[in-house]
Write a structure and sequence with these properties.
Shape: elongated
Structural class: alpha+beta
Strand content: 5-15%
Radius of gyration: 23 Å
Low-confidence stretches: none
Distance between the termini: 46 Å
Order of helices and strands: HEHEHEHHEHHHHHHHH
Largest sheet: 4 strands, mixed
Helix content: 55-70%
Mean pLDDT: 93
């Protein structure tokens, strides 16, 4: 993670706790693999972090599950560290349908015990997605941006602007917040990166390989000085400037112009025939 975090980095203490657990757990014959997640894998842990450890068992063994949990409880008492332990049966986990959090967590995981490469092969299979996965995600974000904030045709108001006419300034500003979220999601997809949980999203956004050149304007776009039409105009103009940079990247990377994005959305996402 290249985004620098302030505060005391306690990763050394966290690693010591994790490595003691690793030594205890991998001595058991039924353990197929052990993975470090969260701050352990990130290389930064502070007083708000947990020691995130996931253990995979080769076969179902409730006695071993209990033994591992007892070891973890003893380590927590001795070290004073919070350990977030998950224990999965490997075959069951292979069949699990992953959500976005699973994908992000394990795309940033550190596999620390994997004697037969079972965990490595499983993660490679579970994290592999077709190119269309990223294209669809970018297209969906682009369509929502068109509706909420950035119409592609002149003299057409966005959803955000509709709330100004309705006299609901709070909803208008909220729609701009949603548009900013779409910018983040589209940028992650253009980098072929899964979405982090909300609490980490902005931090990891700043460390992506590619971000819009004018993304520093996000500071002003996020800032709400007052819930007024005047401040709405200020914010929407900034959001539109940032989005133009994203659109250029979409054209460069995916080869889709604005009208082609809508066509793709209708035909490939909604699975409807486009109107000629």
């Amino acid at each position: 993670m290249s985004c620098r975090l302030k505060g005391k980095n306690q990763i050394r203490q966290f690693r010591q706790v994790a490595e003691r657990l690793l030594f205890q757990i991998n001595a058991c014959s039924n353990v197929a693999g052990i993975v470090f997640l969260g701050g352990l894998a990130r290389g930064f842990a502070d007083k708000y972090s947990d020691v995130d450890v996931t253990v995979f068992l080769a076969r179902k063994d409730e006695l071993l599950r209990k033994k591992i949990r007892l070891n973890v409880l003893q380590e927590q008492k001795q070290s004073g560290s919070d350990v977030d332990l998950e224990i999965h049966y490997l075959n069951d986990f292979k069949e699990k349908v992953w959500d976005e959090t699973d994908r992000w967590d394990f795309s940033h995981a550190e596999v620390v015990f994997d004697p037969e490469d079972q965990i490595k092969r499983m993660l490679e299979a579970k994290l592999k997605v077709p190119e269309e996965f990223w294209v669809r995600r970018v297209v969906v974000c682009a369509e929502y941006m068109r509706w909420y904030c950035c119409p592609t045709q002149k003299n057409i108001d966005s959803i955000a602007e509709a709330w100004i006419d309705r006299g609901d300034m709070l909803s208008a500003h909220y729609c701009l917040n949603y548009a900013i979220e779409m910018i983040l999601e589209a940028t992650f997809a253009l980098n072929k990166e899964f979405l982090p949980p909300q609490k980490w999203r902005m931090s990891y956004f700043q460390s992506l390989k590619w971000i819009p050149k004018n993304s520093k304007l996000l500071h002003e776009a996020i800032k709400i000085k007052d819930i007024t039409a005047e401040d709405f105009d200020r914010r929407i103009n900034i959001v539109r400037k940032i989005w133009q940079g994203v659109l250029r990247k979409i054209e460069e990377e995916i080869g889709l112009l604005s009208d082609e994005i809508t066509k793709y959305y209708v035909e490939k996402v909604l699975c409807q025939a486009s109107v000629p």
